[in-house]
């Protein structure tokens, strides 16, 4: 199927022009004047997971998300959001809205969005969503050990190094499950022309709210200090949260190690050793 045909089937409106944005991502002009982003996932399950995530994160008090226009098989279409530039005001509003989104909660740690598959994905990696009432146990097994094993299978970590990573103490304040974006690195924060920060490319699930914030800090984010200050003012973080950042960052670092190799494995090992 072509992107134009996918746009027509998912929106009911013929496409009038197509522009490639990236690998398996296109922008399609519709005949009615709307513009949509069309994505082709690696599997129908991955498209279904993103669709369920977009619906679940569309909370009025939270950061805005693009309107889902439809999904079928591996294809998904959503409204295009015109790009803008980061600003301190947008960052502060984003921090407050992210706190509000997290507070809407989830049924359990590891719970997928309603109607979403339990075998989801994060980027090009699989992501099992296994509900649990025990965050530490769940995070240790399904976000650290699981991806450490994938990194070993990919040749990025040795078995001994994986044991080092898996031996880190997994502790965090006892808080209810938060509704997470789940893949909140800076590239998935879309600074828009309307002066707001939007959430894109979610891998939503229930988790600890510190995980989203730690991932946001991992690869740099414009005005991060403003985001965190506004978040902490709206929903104060527990003492010592900055010391736990390396723990929460183990998850995305191990995902990247499994996908992209040894450089990220070294960062994961450094984070693990800092937690001893």
TrEMBL record:
Keywords: Kinase, Transferase
UniProt family annotation: Belongs to the fructosamine kinase family.
Gene3D superfamilies tied to this protein: 1.20.1270.240, Phosphorylase Kinase, domain 1, Transferase(Phosphotransferase) domain 1
PANTHER family per record: FRUCTOSAMINE 3 KINASE-RELATED PROTEIN, PROTEIN-RIBULOSAMINE 3-KINASE
Domain of life from the UniProt record: Bacteria
Organism of derivation: Saccharothrix texasensis
Molecular function as annotated in GO: kinase activity
Protein name: Fructosamine-3-kinase
Pfam families: Fructosamin_kin
Lineage, uppermost ranks: Bacteria, Bacillati, Actinomycetota, Actinomycetes, Pseudonocardiales
UniProt-listed InterPro entries: Fructo-/Ketosamine-3-kinase, Kinase-like_dom_sf
């Amino acid at each position: 199927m072509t992107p134009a045909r996918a746009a027509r089937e998912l929106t009911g409106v013929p496409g009038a022009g197509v522009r490639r944005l990236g690998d398996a991502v296109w922008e399609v002009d519709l005949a009615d004047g709307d513009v949509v982003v069309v994505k082709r996932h690696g599997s129908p399950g991955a498209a279904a997971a993103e669709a369920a995530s977009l619906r679940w994160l569309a909370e009025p008090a939270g950061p805005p998300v693009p309107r889902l226009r439809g999904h079928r098989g591996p294809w998904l279409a959503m409204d295009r959001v015109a790009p803008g530039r980061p600003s301190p005001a947008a960052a502060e509003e984003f921090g407050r809205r992210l706190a509000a989104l997290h507070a809407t909660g989830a049924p359990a740690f590891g719970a997928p969005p309603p109607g979403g598959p339990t075998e989801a994905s994060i980027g090009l990696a699989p992501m099992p969503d296994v509900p649990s009432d025990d965050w530490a146990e769940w995070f240790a097994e399904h976000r650290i050990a699981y991806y450490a094993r994938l990194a070993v299978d990919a040749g990025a970590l040795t078995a001994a190094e994986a044991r080092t990573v898996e031996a880190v103490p997994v502790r965090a304040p006892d808080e209810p499950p938060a509704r997470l974006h789940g893949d909140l690195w800076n590239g998935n924060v879309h600074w828009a022309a309307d002066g707001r920060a939007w959430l894109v490319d979610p891998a939503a699930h229930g988790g600890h709210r510190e995980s989203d914030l730690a991932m946001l800090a991992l690869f740099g984010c414009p005005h991060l200090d403003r985001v965190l200050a506004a978040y902490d003012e709206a929903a104060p973080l527990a003492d010592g949260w900055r010391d736990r950042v390396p723990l929460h960052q183990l998850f995305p670092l191990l995902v990247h190690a499994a996908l992209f190799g040894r450089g990220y494995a070294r960062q994961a090992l450094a984070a693990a050793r800092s937690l001893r």
